[in-house]
Amino acid sequence: MVCESWTTKLDVCMDGEAAETEMRSLDVHMRNCPSCAAEALARVQMKRSIQAAGKRFAPTSDFRRRVRMSIAPKPRRSFTSTWMLAAALSLVVVASSLSTYLRVQRRGEQAFSEITDLHVAALASSSQVDVVSSDRHTVKPWFQGKIPFAFDLPELQNSEFSLLGGRMTYLGQAPGAHLIYAVRKHEISVFVFQEAVLGERWGDGSSAKKEPSFNVATWTQAGLRYFVIGDTSAVDIDNLVKLFKAAA
Q1: Residue-wise over 130-140: b if at least 16 C-beta within 10 A, else e?
Q2: In what order do the strands lie in the sheet with 131-132?
Q3: What is the model's pLDDT at position 176?
Q4: Residues 193 and 179 sit within 8 Å (Cβ to Cβ)
Q5: CA separation for the pair 142, 144 (Å, rounded)
Q6: 28-51 per-position pLDDT tens digit
Q7: Residue with more model confidence, 129 or 62
Q8: Mean pLDDT of 105-134
Q9: Which pLDDT score, from 0 to 100, does residue 101 have?
Q10: Pairing of strands 161-171, 131-132
Q11: What pLDDT does residue 25 have?
Q12: How far is Cα of residue 208 from the mean position of the Cα atoms in its chain?
């Protein structure tokens, strides 16, 4: 059962609208209260489902046909007809481009939401990792034979980060690696998947965004798609990203 003191505060915190001190208090509380952690995960997943449901519309071919018919040119006005036909064609091109953009955008947002859910679920789990070790030479070989690709882990000497361990995970139907790092009192998840199997169009460069209460970064390198997410600062996320890029 959710602790009474946090019942009315969870939604505000999940939306990132609470004060920083209150967010830290919730973070500490969830680490020691499985009930509140599970409730927070359920609310995050519900918000993602509602958000995805509101973005399902995309213009159909019938919609484009009706647009063309509604602005069909008058046969007896040659100049005006030509201008209106050009405008109609431009509108169709714009609508088609917008439809493609929205589909790609929705897929990307859904993946970010799923990554956030995987991270929150790991924080709420009593066993966050399957292989517990701070030694990259122990964690990396553990994944051999469990996922269909290999990856490199960074050297953490002289950095603020420490490796806690790793586990297998899935994004949709794509198997991948889930690594957990600690920096000060924060935990950061690093997810690694095959770009081709993931089947998403992300572009060639790196990108970062702000999910509710979390900073997220993603990039592709050597055929692999990386995600880094945590409730720590964007600077910490960027520093860990640089370490992974250097290792790869």
Answers
A1: ebeeeebeebb
A2: 131-132, 161-171, 174-183, 186-194, 224-230, 214-221, 207-211
A3: 94
A4: no
A5: 6
A6: 777 777 777 777 777 777 777 676
A7: 129
A8: 79
A9: 39
A10: antiparallel
A11: 77
A12: 10
Burial-class residue 222 by CB neighbours within 10 Å (0-12, 13-18, 19+). Answer: exposed
Instruction: Say how far apart CA 164 and CA 166 lie, in whole Å.
Output: 7
Residue type, 60: T
Record the tokens describing residue 215, joined without a space. 């900073």
List pLDDT tens digits, range 191-219.
Answer: 999 998 876 555 445 566 665 678 999 99
Tally of CB atoms within 10 A around 95: 15
Q: Which residue would you say has higher pLDDT here, 133 or 89?
A: 133
> Pairing between strand 186-194 and 174-183?
antiparallel
Residue 53 identity (one-letter amino acid) = A
**HEC profile for the chain?**
CCCHHHCCCHHHHHCCCCCHHHHHHHHHHHHHCHHHHHHHHHHHHHHHHHHHHCCCCCCCHHHHHHHHHHCCCCCCCHHHHHHHHHHHHHHHHHHHHHHHHHHHHHHHHHHHHHHHHHHHHHHHCCCCCCEECCCHHHHHHHCECCECCCCCCCCCCCCCEEEEEEEEEEECCEEEEEEEEEECCEEEEEEEEEHHHHCCCCCCCCEEEEECCEEEEEEEECCEEEEEEECCCHHHHHHHHHHHHHHC
pLDDT surpasses 70 at 56: no
Give yes or no for residue 77 having a pLDDT over 80. no
131 strand-pairing partners: 166
